[in-house]
Specification:
By secondary structure, the protein is an alpha+beta fold. It has helices spanning 18-26, 53-68, and strands spanning 3-7, 27-29, 37-40. It has one domain (3-68). The longest helix is centred in the C-terminal third of the chain and has 16 residues, at 53-68.
Length: 73
């Protein structure tokens, strides 16, 4: 896994080249609203949603807690 450490509000601004286009097409912002990382998706299906496993776990826990909020155990 390769993570780019620049904030997501920064983009490639130089003259577009095939390499820049390729990188932009595979670079995504993490879906965790509290995370500002940009990651390079090397997965076969291009279906990654988070920059790291820790962000993925955090979002799954939040979704689980939201679903089970108010249920008595």
């Amino acid at each position: 896994m390769q993570c780019v450490t620049m904030p997501s509000h920064l983009t490639l601004t130089s003259t577009p080249t095939p390499l820049h286009t390729y990188i932009k097409e595979k670079s995504f912002s993490c879906e965790n609203p509290d995370c500002r990382w940009v990651y390079y998706d090397e997965s076969a299906n291009q279906n990654r949603r988070w920059c790291e496993d820790s962000c993925a776990n955090l979002m799954r826990v939040r979704r689980f807690r939201a679903r089970h909020q108010g249920s008595n155990r």
